[in-house]
Amino acid sequence: MRVRLGEDDTLHHPDPTRAAEALAALIRACRRRLWLRVPALDALTAGPAVLDALKALALSSPQADLRVLFDDVDQAVKRGHGLVHLARRLPSRLHLRQTQPDDADPALCFAVAERTGLFEAAGWPRPERLDLCAHALPRAPRRAEHFGRVWERARSNPELRELRL
Fold this sequence. Notes:
Distance between the termini: 43 Å
Shape: globular
Mean pLDDT: 91
Number of helices: 6
CATH superfamily: Endonuclease Chain A
CATH class: Alpha Beta
Low-confidence stretches: none
Strand content: 15-25%
Order of helices and strands: HEHHEHHEEEEH
């Protein structure tokens, strides 16, 4: 799947089994800013397609702004989630924060690229449908504003820091 940010305003509805592929396509199309909101660090963000796309974006520019908000980190820490390892290797480019309990929403799952592209899987991990649009979807700026407000209240989770002995 290929999307072009700022050019293609087609609203795609990929099959939910291809969610990671759709998210990776949006990340690959991104040039600088990607904000990702997931209920938990799970299979959606653990696959090589998403991790490779995030790594490439993080390394593409010193101005890269990659932020990931999540509600639950327990399984990610126990299993050694790839996104946690990537954030440890690129701490100035990839930032992870855990939402406050009042902001937690287990059904909220979206990514906003450059404030115009949107990946949304409401009801994750069993979404009714996926939405992917690279440009001019009115929900994208609203999701970005919501993300910004929640990001300001969120906190870094000490369990995600690398313990050096």
